[in-house]
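Can't paste images in this forum, so I'm doing it all in text. The chain is below; anyone willing to post the predicted structure tokens underneath?
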Amino acid sequence: MNLFAELQRRKVFKVGAAYLVVGWLLIQVSSTVAPQLNLPDWAPRLITLIILIGFPITLLLAWIFEATPEGIRVDSGTVGNKGIFVVCAILAALAVGWYWRTRPVEVRGDSDARSIAVLPFVNMSDDKGNEYFSDGISEEILNVLARTPDLRVAARTSSFSFRKQEKEVPDIARELKVRMVLEGSVRKQGERVRVTAQLIDADKGFHVWSQTYDRDLKDIFAIQDEIANAIADELKVKLDATHAPGAVVPDTNDLGAYDLYLKGMALWAGRGGKNLLEAVELFRTALKKDPNYAKAWAGLALTYAILPEWSEFPYTESRALGRDAAEHALALDPALPEPFAALAYVAGTEFRYATSRALYDRAIAIAPSYATAYQWYGETLQGKGDVDAGVTMLRKAVGLDPKSSIVSSVYANLLYTAHRDDEAIAACEAMAAAIDEEWCPLIKWDVAVSRKDNAQARAALEQVVAARGPGAIALFHAQMDALEGKGDIEAIARKLMDVPDGQMDPNGMTPMAAPDVALWLVMAGRNDLAIEKLARYRKIAPQNTRLLAFDAHLAVLHCEPRFIELMRSLRVEEPHLATDCPKGR
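Text version of the structure:
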């Protein structure tokens, strides 16, 4: 008799199948009930391990013992004993190995319990298009917590980057350098909403707190504040007076306006000219529904502040509209940080640096974890000429929002402007997953060209350029050939002068923006055309043009009277002008 037949005779298969069905049900129940009972994260895994180890033990017992009319007795058969013992031992070893290999790694990012990431709440509604609404709930809670001085809160971009990644909470906490993680779900049906939230200590693996709210949709603002206050109580931190218990004041009583605001902020976070212009319309429509909706005015101010850099919207008009929207928001709610940040950004682009710094300081005092304020502050300090201070501020923004393409790109670019080229490249490579796919290769190209390492320059940008088609790759190689004395510099220069002076054109013949083209022209010995290109750029992005006064890669232009005149028109003063000329000129 073979082993298979003996297993059938002793009913090992039937017992094993029954055990697997019951075990699977127990695992499902434990994973569902554990969060509701505030059991630690390791509890369901331990139950699963016990069930897995129990499986070979059950098989062994079914093999050894036999149920008879006289009762349970030991089966005296000897066929297959060694085989079944080996199989059961292997199954037990596999169970222990699974438990050991999948154990949570200890989080060592930020041991302070007063650091938190708010993950995007899962949209459980029948309408999958309601994801922006569940995102909005998460973001509103995040914004309340970000205003807490004693709490470090990971920014929205970074927290939300884990939406489609199947990562364990300890792994997410480690990447964001936080101790606590808030996750949850939202189910919106008609005029009712169910919000479930749970706070997890990623270091210890415990569910610190969890709660489910079943309310009318009009109570959504109260739910947001209740969750924020519950977290504050657990973390022993004090929220600002606006969100103290019993002080809930709805942002708007019009749920339609709130819905439009959430959609607008989602588009603003995505940037891009099309998104920002759509966001403006959404905020405007929300304000038609509720003219006193302060946050919608704030969203409008944030959008207008950066709109010219992402579209062809007129610069002077955008700044005026942004300032008006910010002032309107503050008249309605002086405790909002976003209008202060928008006003600070506009003041910086108008070279009113003292005012800009005061406004940024106020925004950060209101919301100490507001990553956008730190990012824009760093850019403004760079524009003033305080490049090292700008780098320091951008580091804070990266710490709060390490997964943000915008923040990471600006940080790497600021290091490049500070002539810390190796650091800029290292930052690019370290944040490759977050940075826009064209930005990092461009920085590497800029560094290589400025070092006259043409082979490295070709390697840095060739793949990016090739994605734009045969015409783009032909132009690129002609550029590089010309720098090596193999082509017609004048012909290539004329083509590059026709490159749009604003944001990089995703469908254009080159990924290079005006400053990159200016660098190529300088390296090709055409300083006159480089200055002409930058003079055009000044009309579209004066604040970005001003930065070039502090970029040592273009120091040779500092000897040119037209460049000095251009920079003085942007209020750049000594010692950042002709005194920075390279020796020998």
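The two ends are 99 Å apart (CA to CA). Residues 437-585 form one domain.
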